[in-house]
Specification:
By secondary structure, the protein is α/β, with parallel strands linked by helices. It contains seven helices and seven strands; from the N terminus they run E-H-E-E-H-E-H-E-H-E-H-H-H-E. A seven-stranded parallel β-sheet has the order 3-2-1-4-5-6-7, with helices on both faces.
């Protein structure tokens, strides 16, 4: 059994792949959670996070991996998310909007709860990391469900981090905002008509100015946060922290 066991949802995405490529613990076992197996993973939990009945597949993987775990660190990073549909509430497709709410708002809380439940008795460093965004605090017309989801994630992390401290649960719970990252999400934003996403030009200018960070830089930043002594329940933005040493 590896000394480090890692679950990553959204492992096929830009940040998920950045995390996989930059794992700092030699021999770590990486389990991807998503619809398709991701490059660099050792195991795949086939789950569409837009389907709540699939969440139990992640629960089974947590239970299986942690029931007799004797390594020194376990990590769950929820990096799955979707921007679709970008557009104003009441004007976009309602089914797609519901999917956005389920994936971005509900699945981080549900999977985070399941991980913490199964990690309670593990004698190792335990980390639950949920990806957040500046959209939780800023107004972006066209992103109502996405922004609301990130605000929900932030508060969930604050509350659950406080709970872990009160109960002595020992799971470090963090929400980490990666900043503006060179991923498919950014490409989608730049391709969206301005009438559906009025802030489009801002992101075009960031791209043209070369101000997007790479997924690997984000991955290194996230891993560095785990041993940085952050208070439990911290909500932070990588742009506010020194870049980790490559």
């Amino acid at each position: 059994m590896s000394g480090t066991l890692i679950w990553i949802s959204g492992a096929n995405g830009g940040i998920g792949q950045g995390l996989i490529r930059t794992v700092p613990w030699e021999g770590a076992r990486i389990i991807g959670i998503g619809r398709h197996q991701a490059p660099g993973t050792d195991e795949h939990v086939a789950a569409d996070l837009a389907e709540p009945e699939h969440w139990e597949r992640a629960a089974y993987s947590f239970e299986k991996g942690l029931s007799h775990f004797e390594g020194d660190r376990v990590v769950f990073v929820h990096a799955a998310g979707t921007l679709h549909p970008i557009g104003f509430a009441g004007e976009v497709d309602s089914a797609a909007y519901l999917t956005n709410v389920i994936v971005n708002s509900a699945s981080p809380q549900a999977l985070g709860q399941l991980f913490i439940q199964h990690a309670r008795q593990v004698r190792a460093k335990r980390h639950c990391v949920i990806m957040t965004s500046g959209a939780a605090r800023s107004v972006y017309p066209g992103w109502s469900s996405y922004g609301a989801a990130k605000a929900a994630v932030d508060q969930w992390v604050r509350d659950v981090g406080a709970e872990q401290e009160l109960r002595g649960g020992g799971v470090q719970v963090l929400a980490i905002g990666p900043g503006t990252v060179d991923t498919g999400m950014q490409a989608l934003m730049r391709a969206t008509p301005e009438e559906d996403f009025p802030s489009r030009q801002k992101f075009i200018e960031l791209f043209e100015a070369g101000k997007l960070v790479s997924p690997d830089e984000v991955g290194r930043g996230i891993w560095a946060c785990l041993d940085a002594g952050l208070p439990n329940g911290s909500v932070l933005d990588l742009r506010d922290r020194p870049a980790p040493t490559p």
